[in-house]
Design goal:
Elements (H helix, E strand, L loop, with lengths): L5 H21 L8 E2 L2 H9 L1 H10 L5 E2 L6 E2 L13 H7 L7 H17 L4 H12 L2 H9 L2 H8 L1 H13 L2 H17 L3 H24 L3 H20 L2 H11 L22 H4 L38 H9 L17 H13 L4 H16 L5 H10 L14 H20 L1 H5 L3 H19 L12 H13 L4 H45 L5 H23 L5 E2 L1 H5 L6 H13 L3 H14 L6 H15 L3 E4 L9 H5 L12 H21 L6 H10 L1 H5 L2 E5 L7 E2 L7 E4 L1 E5 L2 H7 L9 E5 L3 H4 L11 E8 L2 E8 L3 E8 L5 E5 L2 E3 L2 E3 L3 E6 L2 E9 L2 H29 L7
Parallel strand pairs: 5-6, 9-10
Antiparallel strand pairs: 1-4, 2-3, 6-7, 8-13, 11-12, 12-18, 13-17, 14-15, 14-18, 16-17
Helix pairs in contact: 1-5, 1-6, 5-6, 5-8, 5-9, 6-19, 6-24, 8-10, 9-10, 9-11, 10-12, 10-35, 11-12, 11-17, 13-35, 15-23, 16-19, 16-21, 17-19, 21-23, 23-24, 27-28
């Protein structure tokens, strides 16, 4: 192996230093030990609390959690897949930097590597890497806490770099880089990013193959394609445990196909169309890539945030207009997709000046991405994709496909700058195209500034705002005619305020493009040095993005590290539940104190918030009860799951069966409770109300929170962990089963069972006596131990969610059959006498595929060592 060329390495080392300095310059709060308050991360900490605690206590994976939706697999919540050994590569690439700095660094470095493979000037590559990282969407999803998405996006340039390297530079190194990068991207478990990235890879490989066919060099196309396919297989196999378990679980989640055939239930195997297209980008909104506030920017800011926008409005409407959100698209928005005004100019210019074959793949991908991002605004194409394109209907938020534009627009812009540096004479001879590019970008910005109302409906009111105004006026007794007139006047007054922000950013974009174009033009005419050009263009691009990003992601988003780690504060209801459990369970207080003491020993800065956190972790680890929290957004709430086991929760992939149980039963019980509690005057009336809540009771809802500042209602009618019934009602199918339960149903004595489980029970007729018992002896999320004592064979119903793919039952250590009861619960025939019943969650697909992942990732690491040795044995490390 030849010696390392340290002089050649210097620009790359300088790039690494610049990336780190840029990240901490943008987020200096990270150096102060603070953390970004990330909404989704906070929710994740809530919903994964039980799984994380079990992992911390035992070092093992529970895989199943009871902390939300009555119980569900943890595959998409917090399961750690240990089989992929490349996780150590991921840790190295993130340099141990605090979140989100590590993710941002990986993203910048990947883009830089890609540019080096494309033989772009090192300093221009640095500019491009920073510009890509600062594309506004990347910062917005960091603020939102979508870290698995950020992680997957960070590896997108690495994967593309590998594929291009395989075709253009070094076949073996390219295939190796592709395998490792794709494995790490899949490991992030945000498959939507990988799915969208495949569109660009398809176009790129297609155009490369066409190129080689035209050159009559088919063998040069076959080899990289074959090796890249093998690389993809290895990447998939090294993540097979997460891929398969999530795929398999998806069939039972809300992304799968329901067994129900009754009205209002989707028939397709995928997301409902309206749900999938809920977050669509407006067609006109696409110009936000060049003009950030073209649709107002963010829903969290109001039109009155700048007094100049509303200073000339009619006084009658000024207050209302000032309070309306700046963003005026169909959906809510935390900010625009903004790539930079000058970046967009260079992107367009690149299609005239850059001759690399990649431009056609970029063009095809960007056009397709914009059209698909329009979703419900381009319904024919969207429906075609949802109905015919494999896997497309598994994902929601179609505007997320714009991550391809976020990536490819800077790629083309950087290639354009590099082309300007390397081929000034050729460009000078083709200078007319420069004017076309300026007209298509700067000229368009100027038109938007001059006559914005010609291109945009600035009087548009979203349905939610219009309905809110209508309802408010109706409640005050306003006539329909007056409401119509008021809305017309409101629209007229909204227009100038919106126009103010649009014109301000349109002129800003025009000036940036004008200066950047002038800088490029005069450099081509050789009026100044390349160093001045690189520094000037870099400052314009990065400064532009920096200032726009700071509108949305800034110091206000940071909180103390302690507050970030413990995002939820225990309410009076939470504390009352803990006290009630302490009163009911002898020795529980000692177990909780032991947990707090153990945690305190390992954390020198242990504070009061930590005490509460570990008190509740000790409570969850040593008790099993459930809470129905009506004081929160019940089915979009992770706070309750942080402290208790909840009937609600926060997940976009809950079990389909549980979602249907919510719609048909839990929601009705919630309404019945809310209405009934208002008229309860006595204890007997309260008991009658609680007894009528069959869905709450069979799911062991011991506590109902209706006011977070007050003690919860203790539900004495809850059926507990398990109970015996003496009547079986057989039903023919899922429709009958879910409809059979209704007001008056008494789950304490009877049960509904699908006829498909008849062979498990045969002609068994259950009976029970007052002395017959089934009680829970020991609890952990993936193992429940019961003791039964009955005079005769009996039928037990367990208040646990039925999930056949992993839950195994045994009686006295011998395997036993269990079945589904009351649509979502577990049932079992238990023999007479005293016995130990155990339910264990041992999903074989997870266990077996982890072994495959371990072997595959190990093989990939060995191959990496061999390839690196073979390639660099006679080749300099840096040439």
């Amino acid at each position: 192996m030849q010696k390392i060329n340290f002089k050649a390495l210097l620009p790359h080392l300088a790039a690494v230093v610049i990336f780190i300095l840029t990240i901490f310059a943008y987020f200096p709060e990270l150096l102060e030990g603070k953390a970004i308050s990330m909404g989704d991360i906070e929710q994740h900490k809530g919903m994964s609390s039980e799984l994380a605690d079990y992992r911390e206590r035992t070092g093992d994976e529970a895989i199943w959690t009871n902390s939300m939706f009555g119980g569900m697999p943890g595959y998409l919540i917090s399961v750690v897949y240990h089989g992929n050994l490349l996780k150590f590569v991921d840790q190295i690439l993130k340099l141990g930097l605090p979140r989100p700095a590590g993710y941002m660094f990986t993203l910048m470095l990947g883009f830089y590597v890609l540019m080096q493979i494309l033989r772009v000037n090192s300093w221009v590559s640095v500019i491009g890497a920073i510009a890509y990282c600062l594309s506004s969407y990347n910062l917005l999803i960091i603020e939102a806490g979508h870290m698995s998405k950020v992680d997957a996006i960070a590896y997108m340039p690495w994967v593309v770099a590998g594929v291009i390297c395989a075709f253009r530079r070094n076949l073996l190194i390219g295939a190796l880089l592709t395998a490792i990068a794709l494995s790490l991207q899949i490991k992030a478990t945000h498959y939507q990013v990988t799915y969208y990235m495949s569109f660009f890879l398809f176009f790129y490989v297609l155009f490369e193959v066409i190129h080689f066919i035209k050159e009559k060099q088919i063998s040069k196309a076959i080899k990289p394609v074959a090796l890249l396919v093998l690389a993809g297989i290895l990447a998939i196999l090294s993540n097979i445990s997460s891929i398969y378990t999530i795929y398999d679980y998806g069939k039972d989640s809300i992304r799968g196909k329901s067994e129900l055939t009754i009205k209002n239930v989707k028939e397709s195997d995928g997301l409902d169309r309206d749900y999938a297209l809920q977050y669509s980008y407006g067609i006109g909104e696409s110009f936000s890539y060049m003009i950030p506030d073209i649709y107002g920017g963010s829903s969290s800011e109001s039109l009155g945030s700048d007094k100049n926008a509303v200073k000339d409005l009619d006084n009658q409407y000024a207050g209302v207009v000032s309070s309306l959100p700046k963003y005026w698209g169909d959906d809510s928005s935390s900010g625009p997709f903004y790539a930079g005004a000058l970046v967009c100019f260079l992107f367009v210019l690149g299609f005239f000046w850059v001759k690399h074959p990649i431009r056609w793949a970029i063009l095809a991908t960007v056009v397709l991405a914009f059209m698909l991002s329009w979703g419900k605004n381009f319904i024919d194409l969207s429906e075609f994709m949802l109905n015919n394109f494999p896997g497309y209907n598994k994902f929601r938020a179609v505007k997320m496909i714009l991550i391809l534009c976020d990536f490819l627009i800077p790629v083309m812009a950087v290639l354009t700058i590099d082309q300007i540096l390397k081929n000034t004479d050729q460009i000078k001879a083709n200078i007319k195209t420069f004017y076309w590019a300026f007209a298509l970008t700067g000229g368009l910005c100027l038109l938007f500034w001059l006559i914005p109302s010609l291109f945009f409906d600035l009087q548009q009111l979203s349905p939610s705002i219009e309905n809110y105004v209508k309802n408010s006026l109706q409640q005050s007794g306003t006539s329909p005619q007056e409401i119509t007139a008021y809305l017309d006047n409101l629209r007229s007054n909204v227009e100038p305020a919106r126009e103010y922000f649009l014109k301000a950013d349109a002129m800003r974009a025009f000036i940036l493009i004008l200066i950047g174009a002038a800088l490029s033009y005069f450099f081509v005419l050789k009026r100044f040095s390349r160093e001045i050009f690189i520094v000037g263009i870099g400052l314009l691009i990065i400064g532009d993005l920096w200032l726009v990003d700071k509108r949305y992601v800034n110091s206000k988003d940071f909180v103390s590290k302690r507050q970030s780690e413990i995002p939820f504060e225990a309410s009076a209801s939470d504390m009352a539940i803990m006290q009630d459990q302490l009163n009911k369970n002898a020795g529980l207080e000692n177990k909780i104190n032991e947990r707090v003491s153990e945690a305190r020993k390992s954390n020198k800065s242990f504070g009061n918030a930590d005490v509460v956190k570990y008190q509740f972790r000790g409570l969850m680890a040593n008790t099993h009860y459930r809470v129905m929290n009506l004081a929160s957004n019940t089915f979009n709430d992770a706070g309750t799951s942080f402290f208790h086991k909840s009937l609600g929760g926060y997940s976009a992939a809950k079990l389909e069966r549980y979602q249907e149980f919510i719609e048909y039963h839990l929601s009705k019980n919630m309404q019945a409770f809310s209405e009934g509690i208002q008229s309860v005057k006595s204890d007997s009336a309260m008991q009658a109300l609680m007894g009528s809540l069959y869905a709450f009771n069979m799911l062991n809802a011991d506590y109902i929170i209706y006011n977070a500042k007050a003690a919860p209602i203790i539900n004495n009618q809850s059926l507990g962990h398990a109970w015996l019934v003496n009547k079986i009602n057989w039903v023919k199918n899922a429709d009958e089963e879910i409809l059979a339960m209704k007001a008056g149903f008494n789950p304490a004595n009877e049960v509904y069972i699908d006829e498909r489980f008849k062979s498990t029970l045969n002609d068994f007729i259950p009976s029970k006596t007052e002395s017959d018992k089934v009680k829970l002896l020991d609890y952990s999320p993936n193992k429940l131990v019961y003791e039964s004592n009955t005079a005769k064979d009996a039928l037990a119903i367990f208040s646990e969610v039925y999930y056949a793919k992993g839950w195994l039952a045994s009686v006295d250590g011998k395997p036993a059959e269990h079945f589904r009861a009351n649509y979502i619960l577990r049932g079992m025939k238990i023999p007479a006498g005293k016995h130990q019943i155990v339910f264990e969650f041992k999903p074989q697909p997870y266990i077996q595929t982890e072994k495959i992942a371990l072997a595959s990732s190990g093989l990939l690491i060995i191959l990496a060592g061999v390839i690196i040795f073979l390639v660099f044995r006679k080749t300099p490390i840096v040439n």
